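pinned: reference chain
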Amino acid sequence: MGNNTKRKPVIAILTGGGDVPGLNPCIKALVCRAIDEGIRVLGFRRGWGGLLSYHRDAAGLDLDHCVHEFDKPEVRTIDRDGGTYLHTSRTNPGAARKKDVPDFLKHHFNSDEEVIDFTDHCIGNLERLGVDAVIPIGGDDTLSFADRLGAKGFPVIAIPKTMDNDVFGTDYCIGFSTAVTRGVGFIHALRTCAGSHERIAVIELFGRYCGETSLISAYLAGVERAIISEVPFDPERLASLVLEDKKTNPKNYVMITISEGAKSVGGEMTLSGESDAYGHRRLGGIGEETGELLKKLTGEDVLNQRLSYLMRSGAPDSLDLMVAVNFANMAVDLFLKKVFGRLVALSGGVYTDIPLGTISTGQKRVDVRELYDVDAYRPKIRHVSGKPMFLY
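pinned: its structure tokens
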């Protein structure tokens, strides 16, 4: 008798870029729904790094450090925690540096070559593993390589995540709600210190090019001033404003939020270290710099606090749980319908999907004219009616 066993379809999932709360619930939902639909699920470790490092010709080697197959018991409890079960990296196989690739690929570099495009190598790995579609969960950088795979003809369905909420084409990205929730909570907690010592508190939040995290956290927490990435600020004007704020506050303290990507008029972003695989240097420190300037200009004591990784630590809030699970189910629905080259998204409060290439057709930034007072350095919501749930 012949073997009539039908081959099961295969999807591969990965998480790239910074970890955010909500990734593990998304992974669990993808795995459980897909297996219930008769689909095998592979997971690449460390984002695109696992795919790049997979050595398809290394017979007999244990390659579980690159990729492994999921079952439902494995993911049973991962949704209760933050971070990413699959680990993550900022690997860019489309422009890989010699120092970042595994040894078996280093011979591809000529002496004068700094980067090589390993897209075809990655597609070969996906084909060798029998993957029918890859589902990456990430922000602009991770999804830009996903779009590159799609342009080469490999089936891709993408899921947006980033605390900055700045993936173009979707109102919402996994991780944003929890980041704002954390921001508001820490701002209120820091009021006790700022108030007790009658200080100016400068609180630095994530946000490279998009200041939505600083803006919305400030809006919800009721801080006096909010510096965002989109609007360069004048330190002397800011100093004058916070002195007035301090004088009019019965408890004689001031709260300020600032995006890590903010800069003063005529200044530059505060960067450190070398560029990563996507051309970005590490951000952070503008809060401390601004605090020192304010201390010098006002003569007041300043409390500096960089929230940084605290915003992406711990379990997701209920909104990120809901969106993560729903995005996962949408991705499996698209796979079952054989609809590829798509990004699952929220638009006007409605779940939908859009062409993946949309992410590179624009930039998602704070609508300064509608949401911000450029003279007072604070949120100014002109009107709410007709705006998306998360203002931008």
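why pinned: The chain has a mean pLDDT of 93. Residues 10-174+316-360 form a domain with the Rossmann fold fold (CATH 3.40.50.450).
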